[in-house]
Design a protein that fits this description.
By secondary structure, chain A is mainly alpha-helical. Chain A contains 15 helices and no strands. Chain A starts with a helix and ends with a helix. The model of chain B has no long low-confidence stretch (mean pLDDT 88). The chains are: A mainly alpha, B mainly alpha.
Chain lengths: 353, 282
C-alpha cells in the first residue's frame, strides 16, 4: 500500500505545498492569503460559463501535457510545444479562412484542414528529432530556436496574407460559417457558449487510448525502454531513429490538437499570442502526473482550475495580476520536484526504523 | 562598416555576459536554460535600483546579487534535491516572468516598464569596463586557477573530484552562482546601457542564444564569446536593415527577426564541434 502511495503521493503533496506557499507570499503584495486562495480554487466553479472556460484550458493542457510526457518517456525534454502550437494554429486558421481546398463537401474540407494541421505540427516536432539523431544537437536548444522561428513565421504569414480586414489587431480572418462546425456543439451549448468544445471529449479519449496502448501493446513500451536505457535498447535492436521520430511525431501531433482546439473550438480565427504559454504549462501538467496518461487528465484539470483562478486575480484583487499564474506554475514545478526528495528521505527513515 | 561592427559589439553585450554565465554552469556539469531568468532579474533590479538611488554602480551590483539569490533556488533544487536542471530552469524562467510584473506593480504602479533612468557618459564607459573585467577575470578563473580545474572536473567526472577530497557539489554551486552574477550584470546592461528603463521580456531570448553559443562553441569560453559576437552582428544587421526603407520593403521585418535563430540552426546543421559536452551533462 505504501509503495503505491509512494509513487503518486509526492507530486500531489508538492502541488498542495506549492499552492500554500504561493498564498503565503501574497502578503508581500499587500493581499490576504485566504482571499487569494479562495479566488484560486473557486473561480473555476462560479458559473457554467466559468466551468466551460476551465474545461477549455483542461483540453489544451491535456494535449500539451501529452506533448511533453511522450518525449520525456524517451528521455527527451520537449519544450518546443509552444512553437508547434503556434505554427499549427496559423496553418489551420489560414487554410480554413481562405477555403484553401476548393471542395464542396464540408466534411472533406474540414478533414483536409485537420490533416494538414496535424502534419504541420508533427513535421515541426520531427525537425527536433532529426537534429538530435543526425547532428547530436541538444533537443532543448533546437526547440528554443524553432519556437522563435515559428512565432515570427506565423506573425509574418498572418499579418501579410491572411489579416482580418475588419480588425486592427494582428489576427487572421474568421473561418467561413460552414466550417464552424463546433460553434454549436452540445458541450458549448450546455456551458452557455463558453470556449469548451467537443475537443475536450477527444482529449479524454486520447488519454484513454494511450493508456490502453501502453498496457496492451509493446509500442509505447519501446519508447519507455529507450528512455530508461538507450544502450540496452540499442543492443536489443530497437531503431533509435524510429523511436525518436515516433515520440516527437506524437508530441507534434498533440501540440497541433491544442491548436485545433483554439481555432475550431474557440475563436474561429488565429489571434497572435492567443496561448497563455500552454506549451510550457504542459510541463507542469506532465510532471504532476508523472507522465501517466490517466494522471494527466486529473493534473490538467487541477492546473486549469488554478490557471482560471489566477486569471481572475486581475478583477478580484488590487495588486495581483494574471501574471501570478506564472508564479503559481513555477512554484508548483519547484514543489513537485522537491516532493520526491522529501518522500525519498522519509522512506529511507521509515526503512531504517 | 565600422559602425555596424561597433553596433554589433554594443548589441551583443548582454549576450556576451550571459555566455560567460552559461559557460560556468554548463562546464561544471549543470545544463542551464535559466539564463533568461537571470538576465530579466538583472535588468529589472538594475533599472529599479538605479532609478531609486541615482547610482548606476549600485544598480549593477544589486543586479548581480539579485541574480545570485534567484540562482540559489535553482542550485538547491538541482544540486541538493536532484531535480532535472531543464525542468527547474524552465520553472525559473516562468517564475521570473511572473514575479517581475507583480513587484513592478507594487513599486511603480505599473506591470510594464520601470520609470526612465538618467544615463551619462561615465555610466556608459563603466559598462565597457565591467565587461572587460568580467571577461578577463572569468578566463583567468576558468583556465589559470586550481578552482577552474576543479570546476571542470566537477563537470567531467564528479567521482574523481570527490576522490581528491573536494566537494563537487560545492564547486558546481559556486560555478552556477558566479555564472548567475555575471549574467545578472548582462541583464543590467539591457536596461541601463541598451535602454534607459526595464520593459517586459526585454531579454528577447538572449539567454537562449547565449546557451546556444556555449554549446555551438564546444564549451570553450573564447570561442563562445566569438560566436556571441557573430549573433550580435546578426542583430546589428537586423537593425540596419529595418531602418533602411529600401531593404525593409523587400525583406519583411519578421524574417529579419528570425536571423539569429536561423543562423544558430544552420550553424548546428553544418558544423559539428569536435568537443563533447561535459560528461555530467551528457
Amino acid at each position: 500500500m505504501w509503495n503505491k502511495f509512494k509513487n503518486f503521493l509526492p507530486p500531489w503533496m508538492g502541488l498542495l505545498f506549492g499552492l500554500v506557499l504561493c498564498c503565503l507570499i501574497t502578503p508581500f503584495f499587500s493581499e490576504q492569503p485566504w482571499h487569494v486562495f479562495k479566488v484560486l480554487v473557486s473561480s473555476a466553479f462560479q458559473s457554467k460559463y466559468d466551468f466551460g472556460l476551465t474545461l477549455y484550458y483542461v483540453t489544451c493542457l491535456i494535449f500539451t501535457g501529452l506533448s511533453f510526457a511522450i518525449p520525456l518517456r524517451a528521455g527527451l525534454f520537449h519544450i518546443g510545444s509552444e512553437g508547434q502550437l503556434t505554427l499549427s494554429a496559423m496553418v489551420a486558421a489560414c487554410l480554413a479562412a481562405t477555403s484553401f481546398f476548393k471542395i464542396d463537401s464540408v466534411f472533406m474540407n474540414i478533414s483536409f484542414v485537420f490533416l494538414i494541421t496535424l502534419i504541420s505540427g508533427a513535421f515541426a516536432a520531427l525537425i527536433i528529432a532529426l537534429f538530435k539523431y543526425f547532428r547530436g544537437s541538444h533537443e532543448v536548444v533546437i526547440a528554443i530556436m524553432l519556437n522563435f522561428i515559428f512565432s515570427a513565421l506565423s506573425l509574418w504569414v498572418t499579418v501579410n496574407y491572411f489579416q482580418n480586414p475588419n480588425s486592427q489587431n494582428p489576427e487572421s480572418a474568421l473561418i467561413p460559417e460552414n466550417l464552424q462546425i463546433f460553434i454549436n456543439d452540445p458541450l458549448k451549448i450546455y456551458f452557455e457558449k463558453s470556449p469548451v468544445s467537443l475537443f475536450f471529449v477527444f482529449a479524454v479519449v486520447c488519454c484513454l487510448i494511450l493508456f490502453l496502448i501502453e498496457r496492451k501493446t509493446t509500442w509505447l513500451q519501446k519508447i519507455n525502454a529507450y528512455g530508461k536505457n538507450r544502450h540496452a535498447s540499442r543492443r536489443h535492436g530497437f531503431s533509435e531513429l524510429q523511436i525518436l521520430m515516433t515520440a516527437m511525431g506524437l508530441a507534434g501531433f498533440f501540440s497541433a490538437c491544442a491548436a485545433l482546439t483554439e481555432i475550431f473550438g474557440n475563436s474561429m480565427q488565429y489571434k497572435i499570442g492567443f496561448s497563455p504559454m500552454f506549451g510550457f504549462l504542459g510541463i507542469a501538467v506532465s510532471l504532476l502526473a508523472r507522465q501517466n496518461f490517466l494522471g494527466i487528465l486529473f493534473s490538467a484539470f487541477l492546473m486549469a482550475a488554478l490557471h482560471k483562478g489566477a486569471s481572475d486575480l486581475d478583477l478580484e484583487t488590487q495588486y495581483l495580476t494574471r501574471d501570478f499564474s506564472k508564479v503559481l506554475q513555477a512554484v508548483i514545478i519547484f514543489s513537485v520536484a522537491g516532493s520526491y526528495y522529501a518522500f525519498n528521505y522519509f522512506s529511507k527513515k521509515r526503512n531504517k526504523s | 562598416m565600422i559602425n555596424i561592427l561597433l553596433s554589433a559589439f554594443r548589441m551583443s553585450l548582454p549576450t556576451l555576459f550571459a555566455t560567460i554565465g552559461g559557460y560556468f554552469s554548463e562546464k561544471s556539469g549543470v545544463a542551464q536554460i535559466g539564463l533568461e531568468a537571470f538576465l530579466l532579474t538583472g535588468a529589472f533590479t538594475a533599472a529599479s535600483v538605479a532609478y531609486g538611488t541615482h547610482s548606476m554602480g549600485l544598480g549593477y551590483l544589486s543586479a548581480g546579487i539579485m541574480a545570485v539569490l534567484i540562482a540559489q533556488i535553482f542550485c538547491y533544487l538541482v544540486l541538493v534535491v536532484g531535480a532535472n536542471s531543464i525542468v527547474i530552469g524552465t520553472g525559473l524562467n516562468l517564475f521570473v516572468l511572473g514575479v517581475i510584473p507583480l513587484v513592478s506593480k507594487s513599486l511603480f504602479q505599473s506591470t510594464g516598464s520601470t520609470p526612465a533612468i538618467e544615463t551619462n557618459e561615465f555610466a556608459l564607459a563603466m559598462t565597457f569596463l565591467i565587461f572587460l573585467v568580467a571577461v578577463i577575470f572569468s578566463y583567468w578563473l576558468s583556465e589559470k586557477t586550481l578552482w577552474g580545474l576543479q570546476m571542470k572536473f566537477a563537470g567531467e567526472k564528479k567521482e574523481a573530484l570527490k576522490a581528491t577530497g573536494i566537494s563537487a557539489l560545492q564547486r558546481q554551486w559556486q560555478a552556477i552562482s558566479f555564472g548567475a552574477f555575471i549574467t545578472g550584470l548582462g541583464g543590467a546592461t539591457l536596461s541601463t546601457f541598451l535602454a534607459s528603463s526595464y520593459s517586459p521580456q526585454m531579454s528577447a531570448g538572449r539567454g537562449f542564444i547565449a546557451l546556444a553559443a556555449v554549446i555551438f562553441s564546444g564549451w570553450n569560453l573564447p570561442r563562445a564569446l566569438i560566436v556571441s559576437l557573430v549573433f550580435g552582428l546578426c542583430e546589428a544587421l537586423q537593425i540596419q536593415v529595418q531602418t533602411n526603407p529600401e531593404i525593409s520593403a523587400k525583406i519583411p521585418g519578421e524574417f529579419i527577426q528570425m536571423i539569429p535563430y536561423l543562423v544558430t540552426l544552420i550553424a548546428l546543421l553544418f558544423f559539428k564541434s569536435k568537443n563533447q559536452a561535459p560528461q555530467e551533462i551528457a
